[in-house]
């Protein structure tokens, strides 16, 4: 059962070069453009009249039939990996047929047109109230919140509110506002690095360590000062799935305020954990139950179980979102307020979020997230028994598990080799280094989502063991490639280390 491996298979076989069609046909040269057109070969099923090759880098002179255009793109994306086997992404890849039907009925609605689509606008507002209540906002019916295209936009908005509140307070005190800083872990999601860069804010990183692989409260205290606009904590670190100790960090900042008068707010990046902790770990205090937490973001398209393109941010109280960041416009009909980085946005994902709220309720979310966690725990329990690996996280926070290779396992392969080998089965499992000061440690991570069943987990384990067996059979290093060679490059074919029989 399974696949047999032979390290001689595929030896000497030529790799297809996407920029070389000479072995198929002569390239056509567009009049006025002496350089060859990179496009389909003469054997493509989408031949235009006169044998014209479809260009990839310019608008074609003429159009084509709808079915032909569909087939051209359909055949291209057929070469993508399977979303169901993508264990790298946190993003939802499956919804119910009834949700798909709702999606097709609403994809043409622009969410910003609130005067034209008042019920859709009302549903967005209902979702905001539901999340504010779920996260224990003191006044969920009056606080502020907004939907976004994802957590990255939500984080930007939360950070802007932190900066503007700090600026306004400093102006009242007659103090300068030219040197703001923000504090977070070195394992923070890249959006916060972007935020600091884009908005001219000094990032202050608290580096993780083997003993504290998340935001260290002591490190926070040593990093903050009067110019700190806020501390960003993460409920579900992207690298490992761990929750950062929001309550402990808040208590340290409370003590700091009692000694120095510095009142530093917290933003919780709950992109993943915001839809997990309320159902699976209700005993953890991390949300608006902590007075110092002023804003929370979440990705609806992660464990909110909605297709890509929806995030949320909620503020603890209405006054935590500075009024001067809100714009009022009348040119869409009526007078509406807007606070977002984007304007035109699809409404379908907002409606799908509300669909899930109605469809699942608290009980349904609990059952789904609990099952997902059980799959993660099953996998981590099996993986920790594999002698090659040292388990770092087991899925007891987020349903995410991560592991590293034990010292001295083999000199012939590493986790990057294992990642490439798993791809021959279709599995996409990332290998990557940890952030400073642990960049010398490479880990592998599996994100368990709702659509990743226990049956698929068993198949994955079988393929994982087969991949390890193959790599162990090598009597020489698999390759000299490192992480820098396995990233996506435009026009570069993927190189498999072996073929299956």
Automatic annotation (TrEMBL):
The keyword rRNA processing does not apply. The modification N6-(pyridoxal phosphate)lysine is found at residue 302. Keywords: Decarboxylase, Lyase, Pyridoxal phosphate. Its cofactor is pyridoxal 5'-phosphate. This is Glutamate decarboxylase. Belongs to the group II decarboxylase family. It catalyses: L-glutamate + H(+) = 4-aminobutanoate + CO2. GO terms for cellular component: cytosol. One of its GO terms (molecular function) is pyridoxal phosphate binding. It comes from the Bacteria. Its EC number is 4.1.1.15. It is an enzyme of class 4 (lyase). InterPro entries: Glutamate_decarboxylase (IPR010107), PyrdxlP-dep_de-COase (IPR002129), PyrdxlP-dep_Trfase (IPR015424), PyrdxlP-dep_Trfase_major (IPR015421). GO terms for biological process: L-glutamate catabolic process.
């Amino acid at each position: 059962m399974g696949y047999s491996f032979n390290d001689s298979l595929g030896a000497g076989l030529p790799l297809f070069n996407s920029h070389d069609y000479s072995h198929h046909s002569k390239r056509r040269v567009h009049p006025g453009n002496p350089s060859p057109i990179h496009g389909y070969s003469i054997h493509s099923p989408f031949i235009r009249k006169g044998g014209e090759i479809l260009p990839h880098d310019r608008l074609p002179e003429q159009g084509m039939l709808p079915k032909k255009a569909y087939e051209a793109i359909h055949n291209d994306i057929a070469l993508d990996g399977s979303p169901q086997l993508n264990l790298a992404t946190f993003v939802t890849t499956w919804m119910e047929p009834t949700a798909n039907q709702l999606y097709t009925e609403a994809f043409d609605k622009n969410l910003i047109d609130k005067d034209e689509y008042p019920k859709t606008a009302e549903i967005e507002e209902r979702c905001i109230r539901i999340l504010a209540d779920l996260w224990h906002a003191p006044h969920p019916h009056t606080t502020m919140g907004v939907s976004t295209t994802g957590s990255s936009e939500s984080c930007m908005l939360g950070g802007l509110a932190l900066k503007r509140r700090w600026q306004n307070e400093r102006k009242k005190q007659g103090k300068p506002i030219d040197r703001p800083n923000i504090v977070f872990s070195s394992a923070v999601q890249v959006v916060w690095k972007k935020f600091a860069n884009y908005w001219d804010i000094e990032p202050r990183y608290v580096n993780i360590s083997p003993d504290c692989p998340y935001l260290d409260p002591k490190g926070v205290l040593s990093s903050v000062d009067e110019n700190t606009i806020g501390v960003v904590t993460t409920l579900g670190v992207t690298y490992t799935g761990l929750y950062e100790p929001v309550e402990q960090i808040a208590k340290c900042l409370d003590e700091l305020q009692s000694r120095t008068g510095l009142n530093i707010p917290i933003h919780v990046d709950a992109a993943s954990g915001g839809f997990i902790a309320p159902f699976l770990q209700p005993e953890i205090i991390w949300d608006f139950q902590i007075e110092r937490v002023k804003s929370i973001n979440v990705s609806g398209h992660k464990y909110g179980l909605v297709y890509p393109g929806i995030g949320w941010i909620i503020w603890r109280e209405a006054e935590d979102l500075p009024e001067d960041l809100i714009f009022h416009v009348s040119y869409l009909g009526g007078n509406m307020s807007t606070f977002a980085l984007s304007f035109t946005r699809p409404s379908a994902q907002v409606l799908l979020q509300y669909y899930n709220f109605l469809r699942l309720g608290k009980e349904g979310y609990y059952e789904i997230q609990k099952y997902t966690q059980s799959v993660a725990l099953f996998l981590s329990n099996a993986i920790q028994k594999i002698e090659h690996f040292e388990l770092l996280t087991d899925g007891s926070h987020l349903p995410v598990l991560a592991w590293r290779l034990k010292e001295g396992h083999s000199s012939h392969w590493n986790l990057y080799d294992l990642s490439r080998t798993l791809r021959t089965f279709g599995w996409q499992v990332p290998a990557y280094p940890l952030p400073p000061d642990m960049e010398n440690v490479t880990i592998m991570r599996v994100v368990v989502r709702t659509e990743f069943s226990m049956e698929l987990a068993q198949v994955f384990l079988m393929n994982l063991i087969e991949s390890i067996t193959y790599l162990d059979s090598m009597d020489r290093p698999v390759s000299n490639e490192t992480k820098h060679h396995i990233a996506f490059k435009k026009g570069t074919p993927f190189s498999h280390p072996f073929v299956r029989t």
